[in-house]
Amino acid sequence: MRYLPLLRRARRSAGPDFRAVPDRGTVRSAPVGTARDQARCRDGYKCAMGNEADRARRPGGPAAPAGDERAQDGGEDLDQDVEEVIAAVLTASRLLVAISARALARIEPSLTLPQLRTLVVLDSQGPSKLATLAAALGVNPSTAMRMVDRLAAAGSVTRKANPGNRREVVLELTDGGRELVAQVLADRHAEIAAIVARLPAGQRAGLVDSLRALADAADAPPVPPRPAPPPEPAAP
Fold first, then answer.
1. Where in the sequence is the domain holding 110, given as residue range(s)?
2. From the CA atom positions of the chain, what is the Rg in Å?
3. Which candidate, 64, 112, 141, 207, has a CA 20 to 30 Å from the CA of 41?
């Protein structure tokens, strides 16, 4: 309380410009006017500024408006929503990779996932040049060439000279390569179908919309749905 005598003298000298300012539930008086009077107001005593210019000179500046706090909270909520989406996508991606790995283990254990992806790209694009295949896989041509070498040795890919440019090589699946792709994709399709069948109809529709939105955001080409199987003939 050693500042109380100073505060009383400031009150007498400030005259009518002196205002009461609440501080933690207690009404305190603080000087307004000269720098000397304001310097005496410290240690829990708030100086009541007489105008907006005085408020602008306060250390730390004015308090943030309530709207800014709400905007900050909204940004944190948005970040949390994004993280939840990322976690869900990573979980689904891990599931799909595991399904593909199980299909390969059942159909052709010696085939790797990168090799399967190469076969699927060639199956969907048809005969392709090495540079085109490398671009579709997102790898450099030398990496794609090593992949093709292994698949050609396994009898799944052929290399033919381009009729329009004899210096270029055209890559194409063999009949065995196409059959291998069909078998692996059919096995994968069956396991995914069994999982989707366990979902309620409403969740299936929401899942379709969400996955299509994700594919559109990534500019991924859509996979057309398989036609429904024909109905089984009625028993005689």
1. 83-215
2. 37
3. 64
**Rounded CA separation 111/148 (Å):** 13
One domain, residues 89 and 205? yes
N- to C-terminal Cα distance for the chain?
105
The tokens describing 60, both together, are 């730390």
**pLDDT in single tens digits along all 236 residues of the chain:** 444 444 455 445 444 444 444 444 444 444 444 454 444 444 444 444 444 444 444 444 455 455 555 455 556 666 888 899 999 999 999 999 999 999 999 999 999 999 999 999 999 999 999 999 999 999 999 999 999 999 999 999 999 887 777 778 899 999 999 999 999 999 999 999 999 999 998 899 899 999 999 999 999 888 888 776 565 566 55
- Looking at residue 174, which CATH number applies to its domain? 1.10.10.10
Is 113 part of any domain?
yes
Distance CA 92, CA 84 (A): 12
Whether 124 and 207 share a structural domain? yes
Tokens of 193: 């179908």
Predicted TM-score (pTM) of this structure: 0.60
Query: CA 92, CA 202: separation in Å to the nearest integer?
Result: 19
